[in-house]
């Protein structure tokens, strides 16, 4: 293999690959990238066996070839180089020489035959989704995806396509986030569980235009320009989330989002690492946030709000409320309540989505 390519373009395609590769793995090749030079392009691939990302760069290919190289070290080398052009030469089967300006590196790699065969999604449903809308909606539910490996059916978000719209839902059993937006040419009803890591990596991609969603029998493909992310479909049954959303919370409190978020974060400073809980005490035209910790002390703060109902005290995890407030785009939000044993439901006032809400289960304090 012998190729010449633009350093900036090469680095731009290498960086997204870093999130895919496995740094701590018993399979060494999963910490590597597959580089394949053919037909005036350098093709790149990374995988952890569940999520894969492929891309390519324009290149002047003098001699075709392939090698798997350690991802982290390759990115560090290319980032450190100066000059516009990089020369990659594979003189021996598992040794890649990198030249740029007066710099010369020789790094050891693995045979391309050791790299896993990447899945292909050929048959199945295809839908074009505006990438800006997909990223915005994903950001509003990603925080609610469960990180507990034992609850595998909650380790992703439910992506639901329906006539004229798209819905995304995530829950970890303690809170639930749902966002719904418009989508042209959705092509009828369909729902699938998308793994958390795939959603995280799609959030990190940069680009404009349409995200090409393609569903196969066991895998999903998301293509944006020259990049394609393929992931396994999560197996399992997602909970009946509509039943979790309280329909009879008759008490409503309206807040300015930013002051509320800042107050919650301040009071949360005196909560323990294990017992993350604050008390929200609602009264006409104000809410008092408080926290008490026998080892640290206590904190209280008053926050103005539009509320004219009876006094209610509610225990809540401050991180859950903060993450919802950070995801909301509007300046005003409302919290809908019933009593201290019923879930609190947060909504933005207006906003670009057809529907957006966050359900937070109460805590006993």
Can you put this structure into words, describing what you see?
With 365 residues, this protein is of the alpha+beta class. The protein folds into 3 domains: 113 residues, Roll (DNA Polymerase III, Chain A, domain 2); 114 residues, Roll (DNA Polymerase III, Chain A, domain 2), CATH 3.10.150.10; 116 residues, Roll (DNA Polymerase III, Chain A, domain 2). Helix content is 16%, strand content 44%. It is built from 6 helices and 25 strands. The radius of gyration is 25 Å and the shape is elongated.
Q: Would you kindly provide a brief summary of this structure?
A:
This protein is an alpha+beta fold and 365 residues long. The chain has helices at residues 7-14, 71-80, 131-139, 196-204, 257-267, 318-327; strands at 2-6, 32-38, 41-47, 51-58, 60-63, 65-70, 85-92, 95-100, 103-110, 125-130, 156-162, 165-171, 175-182, 190-195, 210-215, 219-224, 227-232, 251-256, 278-283, 286-293, 297-304, 312-316, 332-337, 344-348, 355-360. It folds into 3 domains: 2-114, DNA Polymerase III, Chain A, domain 2 (Roll), CATH 3.10.150; 125-238, DNA Polymerase III, subunit A, domain 2 (DNA Polymerase III, Chain A, domain 2), CATH 3.10.150; 245-360, Roll (DNA Polymerase III, Chain A, domain 2).
